[in-house]
Amino acid sequence: MSHAKNFYAGPSVLPVSVLEEIQKDMVDYKGSGLSLIETSHRSAEYGQVHKNAMNLVREIFGVPDNFKILFIGGGATLQFSMIPLNFLSGGKTCDFTLTGTWSKKAYADAKKVGNVNVVYDGKDNSYTRLPDPSTLKASPGSSYFHITSNETIGGIQWKDWPDTGDVPIICDMSSDIMSRPIPFEKFGMIYAGAQKNLGPSGFAVVIIRDDMLEKCNPNMTAFLDYKVHAEKESLYNTPPVFSIYAMSLVLEKVKAEGGLKEVEKRNKEKSKLIYDVMDKSNGFYKSPVDVSVRSDMNVVFTMANEELEKEFVAQAKAKQMVGLKGHVSVGGCRASIYNSLPLSDVVALVEFMQEFQKAKS
Ligand SMILES: *Cc1c(COP(=O)(O)O)cnc(C)c1O
Q1: Distance between CA 211 and CA 159 in Å, rounded?
Q2: Which of 22, 177, 198, 220 is the S-S candidate for 194 at Cβ 3.0 to 4.6 Å?
Q3: Annotated binding site for pyridoxal 5'-phosphate
Q4: For residue 73, how far is its CA from the centre of ligand 1 (angstroms)?
């Protein structure tokens, strides 16, 4: 059986070698006599996996010593709640950039907790562009400035960051974490659901600066308190042991393959293949997205009509290319080409795109 070419937006492609390693160790984890997923999270076996995963995140991402790495069950959507509950309660204000579906969801939750100042709203351009970061300012006294680094549904990605002075930037990197180096000096906190570039679903990776931990709401319940997760090294309660283990295998692979600079180079090469075919298609494939902010992770495109798009998705599926349908809210097509998707799968896609255009022109 061959493995399909996986263009799903999330959960998404994992390296076949990682899936095979998981399979090999599933029943008897490294000779322990037990599966890792039936082993205590306080055991030596899991303790080693947990520590290794944290060390790999610190090493591969280049996380500075004054940041803590947390693994928090629940995904990025829980962070939409935890961030305002910790940093906005008691009449505080934050700044938000509204750039698409995900930032608007984060915004809607923040607004329920405190005051939110909208610094940028891309409504007028249907969220197909991003502002020049140098034109953006944080408001005085703001608790944080929220950015979504890659809008997974709209297919737009920040290429540079605003200078917000003393106001810490909190960035949702769910769909492009580990796709390029992270300039930590620009951020107070970053977070990402694990299921796009890192591993299986079930938790979020949160990387938070020490001074942010000092500013957390002192009246939070335990699980919602970042300080509790930091003090207990993400073992306050039972972590999603399987997902963290699987992520550690993905991290090992990224490390062996040369780290984030190398990953970024490959990602740019992959996205360019698709954008080039679109640009040379005489309008057969159209991108709604401004060229300067095209995402290297989620490539969105449309065709002349919905019938054609449906046929494209169906024919692709027959060729074992799955997950190319655009998000229900925006229609069209979307190729999510995360880190673990091999270059050869992107080559297969662009060859099919050219064939399909020829057949339909
Ligand atoms: C997928 C995604 C989320 C939601 O993540 P969950 O883990 O499902 O809560 C949030 N933000 C962005 C940018 C995403 O791509």
Answers
A1: 26
A2: 198
A3: 76-77, 102, 152, 172, 195, 237-238
A4: 13
The answer to pTM > 0.85 is yes
Query: What does the alpha-carbon distance between residue 81 and residue 140 come to, in Å, rounded to a whole number?
Result: 23
Do residues 99 and 234 lie in contact, with contact meaning Cβ atoms separated by under 8 Å?
A: no
Residue minimizing CA distance to atom 4 of ligand 1: 76
Cβ neighbors of 64 (< 8 A, separation 6 or more) are 184
Ligand 1 centre to CA of 239 (Å) is: 19
The answer to whether the CB of 61 falls within 8 A of the CB of 54 is no
How many residues are listed for the chain in this entry?
361
For residue range 193-227, list pLDDT tens digits in order: 999 999 999 999 999 999 999 999 999 999 999 99
Q: Which domains are present in the chain? A: 16-255 (3.40.640.10), 259-360 (3.90.1150.10)
Q: Decide: 162 in ligand 1 pocket, CB within 6 A.
A: no
* Binding residue numbers for L-glutamate: 42
Residues 6+ apart with CB under 8 A from 43: none
